[in-house]
Amino acid sequence: MAEVVLNNIIKAYNKGEVKAVNDVSFSVNKGELFGLIGADGAGKTSIFRILTTLLVPDSGTASVNGFDVVKDYKSIRKNVGYMPGKFSLYQDLTIEENLNFFATVFNTTVAKNYDLVKDIYVQLEPFKNRRAGKLSGGMKQKLALCCALIHRPTVLFLDEPTTGVDVVSRKEFWEMLKGLKQQGITILVSTPYMDEATLCERIALIQNGSIMTIETPDNIIKQFPDKLCAVKADNMSKLQNTLRNNPQIKSCFSFGDFHHITFQNDNEHQQNELLKTLQEANFQDIEIKHITPSIEDCFINLMNYYDERSCNKNRQANQAFW
Amino acid sequence: MTNEVVIKTDKLTKRFGDFIATNEVTFEVYAGEIFGFLGANGAGKTTAMKMLCGLSTPSSGNATIAGFDIYKQTEQIKKHIGYMSQKFSLYEDLTVLENIQFFGGIYGLSDKQLKEKSNELIETLGLKSEAKKLVGSLPLGWKQKLAFSVAVLHEPQIVFLDEPTGGVDPVTRRQFWDLIYQAADKGITIFVTTHYMDEAEYCNRVSIMVDGVIEALDTPANLKQQFSATSMDEVFYELARGAKRSE
Amino acid sequence: MKQFLSFVRKELYHVFRDSKTLLMLFGLPIVLIVLFGFAVTNEIKNAKIIVCDYAKDPASQEIINKLTVNTTFNLEKTLLNHSQIEEAFKKEDIKLAIVFPANFNKDLLHLNKAQVQIIADASDPNTASTLTNYAMAVIMDYQMDLMQNSNLPYRITPEIRMLYNPELKGATNFVPGIMALVLLLVCVLMTAVSIVKEKEMGTMEILLVSPFNPLLVIISKALPFLLLSFVNLVVILTLSVTLLDMPINGSLLLLVAESTLLIICALSLGLLISNNTHSQQTAMLLAMMGMMLPTILFTGFMFPLENMPVALQILANIFPSKWYYIIVKSIMIKGLGFSAIWKETLILLGTTILLLVLSLKTFKKRLE
Q1: In this structure, are C178 and C227 located in the same domain?
Q2: For C179-204, how does the pLDDT look when each residue is reduced to its tens digit (9 = 90+)?
Q3: What ipTM does this complex have?
Q4: Strand pairing partners for C158?
């Protein structure tokens, strides 16, 4: 059963000049952990604001729990939980005061739904009298999550909850989300971090206001069109130039200590040929291996594909575009 | 990369009342190096960087940046470095050209140099048709690339980058690092902080700060060996896990 | 040097591309010069006066003519009975009354001296003094005329009575104005800023996406300022009465009720401003320019309204502070009851309802 549905949503700013959301359609099922993956300015926040009834779309329809976002906004506002992009709780109230306040705003008490937030709140409890403004990034995030959950929402919208937070807290946060999923809450999360994508059940990759694909992470990886290889050598900077100038290589992007490449023609010999070419160019410690693409590889591939399709100005700007 | 030391710190410390943000930090950075300065939020990275840029006075310890003393010669330091942060880079209500002209003027470039460099910059970034547009109307990725190019307009000895690729799409991120490589090839030392662990691999050496102290400093390869890890992500997680400042 | 010029050029770009700054830079001085140029003048014009002429003889007629010809005075009516004077001061906006005794001319001819009574509304002591002096000048002028024609030492002695404020204390004039200013300032500015702050911080977003009626959010913000304003009111009244010897001649209850009305009016205005602004800075600017400045200019406690050109006098009518000022003076200084100020109260009530309706209607249930 689809809990959240969007149909052809369009939203533009600056009198139509900037299309923040460009004909977006997708649906999220009940109890699903759904990720909206894309960079800043891709349209994630606008989509969330439309779904939480804070913005009205220029055209298209959307519904949450069967309620229309424009006509039945009051019903939606009673049942969803929302954690906006920047930390927006009361800095000069304590942890406990914030939680109590939001419980009251939602006509409930902390005690009533404590079981839902217990696992998260126990980490905060020793500091419950500390003012929210004085918390570390990770703790603020946990508090914001508790406040969004305290009224037992059916759908939870989390807009970039892990941005600006340290690596350890980010991992903990996703553990908490998995726990929540088991309680049957539908969760929509947006994030710019590609590695978090694999933690979701289904993801939508979004760029420039348009959805590039919606699938399970596994399927997206399976749909990667080419064979992907990782290449390493002693001089990575020089290697990148060499690979980019090689006519057999279709794409080359750096990924940490390896460069990820695809070939123009996928056949058996390519790898060996490349090895020979690199050896002749005096590279040492060469390593070439076939790898499974990551979500980031897929994202880049899709960006290329969409850019070519729309032949837009980005091409011109990205002269070193590879 | 050479052996000439461009940044040298000796027990550099910054205290805010009882709280020691940066605790006796000691390290060296070499000319032409790409040096990754990593650490979790609150670890003391930003405080340390501010001191190195001459924006904040240390509580104790010594440092020289580009050969200038951190206490007595902060104005000289500022003349020889570039700086770019995620929060502020360019003026949104000025055009691309106006921003370049402004910063060029501030860095003391002559009119001729400025003209040459701004043409070069606009050409490289492919912003010819955008040159007269307000920076505020550009997409984030272009802004960041432009901001970096402006930060190195005067070819400083060292450029400090504070999380320059935050929130940017993966393709633009890599283009940004292309620009960093080009700058490093010209001999500019890059001092960069980032949350992306794959970017840590692009650095010549990396330091990881935890609770105000540098817990590790080496090449990515050596660090991975040291911690028996396959990626910098694992190394970082190993070190950051025990941090007390996340409370 | 070149660096310095770079900075200057950049700053100029910033200024000229920010329409709000430009408005302040060029619009404001023009508005101020025009306003102050016309509004502020020490000349008194068209002051309403009444005459009680028991004499009805050539002498009194002559003086009355001289008075009416003078642009300073505007003869409202001629009364037949002394007892009507007090009421005229209370009910109408009379500033000065002149009483000629029955045998004015006869006394002058036979005794070479006569008396005239000048009664002034001294709740605005400056205007009262000025008008009294003008009136005396006119009378002395007549006296000079008489003496020129006959070389006799005519003497007309004015008996001066300052109503409501015999000691000519300045406080009676400005304290009601300050009351209006303080109540308006606290309520409008603080309410507007407090609500906009919530928008700026982002907490408003979360409150909107909840079953809690956002209007209640607003009311909960206005309530503390309502209470604080009462405290302010009590403090100002106490200080005025104890330190400045201000009288409270009328009903205290009525005063508090009318003040409450002004407070609600101000809170509605604050709410209206907050609905349409997105930054605390803009809210503060609007409150200052749109509220404080006109209050100072157009309430009538700094610069009498009668001295301004008609256009500005009409403009002053839209500011609630003007009506509140009249109400407070009537109650505190003139000791009048509701029957005297029902018109002003009605106008204030109407303004309040209008502002409330507007602000509730323009309240944004969404982010745009």
Answers
A1: yes
A2: 899 889 888 998 899 889 988 888 88
A3: 0.87
A4: C116
**What DSSP state is assigned to residue A294?**
P
pLDDT digits (tens, 9 = 90+) for A34-70: 999 999 889 999 999 999 999 999 999 999 999 999 9
Name the residue facing C368 among A55, A80, A86 (closest C-beta). Answer: A55
For chain C, the average pLDDT equals: 87
Is A82 close to C366, i.e. CB distance below 8 A? no
Best residue of C13, C16, C22 to probe chain B, by most B CBs closer than 10 Å: C13
pLDDT of B1 over the 60 cut: no
First CA to last CA distance, chain A: 41
| pLDDT above 70: residue A320 | no
The answer to whether residues C176 and C312 belong to one domain is yes
Contact C17 B106 (CB under 8 A): no
- Give whole-number Cα distances, B156 to A308, B5, B31, B80, B202, in Å: 37, 15, 11, 5, 21
Angle, vertex CA B107, rays to CA B106 and CA B112, nearest 5: 100
Cβ contacts of B237 on chain A, cutoff 8 Å: 167-168, 171
Do C247 and C322 reside in the same domain of the chain? Answer: yes
CB contact under 8 A, A49 and C367: yes
Give the neighbours of chain A: at least 3 Cβ pairs within 8 Å: B, C
Q: Domain check: are C75 and C150 in the same one?
A: yes
Spatial separation of the C-alpha atoms in residues A52 and A61, rounded to whole Å: 13
- Which domain-ending residue is among C159, C191, C223? C159
What pLDDT score was predicted for residue A216?
A: 96
Domain co-membership, C84 together with C104 = yes
In which band, very low, low, confident or very high, does the pLDDT at A311 lie, cut at 50, 70 and 90?
A: low
Count of C-beta atoms within a 10 Å radius of residue A193: 18
E strand or H helix that includes residue C299: none
Architecture of the domain defined by B5-89+156-240: 3-Layer(aba) Sandwich (3.40)
| Distance, CA of B183 to CA of A73 (rounded, Å) | 52
Question: pLDDT tens for residues B191-221?
Answer: 999 888 889 999 999 999 999 999 999 999 9
Q: What is the CATH number of the domain that holds C126?
A: 3.40.1710.10
What is the rounded CA–CA span in Å between residue C264 and residue B79?
58
C9 and C144 together in one domain: no
- pLDDT band at B87, cuts 50/70/90? confident
**Which residues numbered 204-243 in C keep a CB inside 8 Å of some CB on A?**
205-212
Chains that touch C (3 or more CB pairs under 8 A): A, B
Report the gap between the CA of C11 and the closest CA in chain B (Å): 10
Contact B171 A168 (CB under 8 A): no
Domain-located, residue C347? yes
CA C308 to chain CA centroid, nearest Å: 12
The alpha-carbon gap from B136 to the nearest alpha carbon of chain C, in Å, equals 13
**pLDDT given for residue B42 in this prediction:** 75
| C293-315 pLDDT tens trace | 888 888 888 888 888 888 888 88
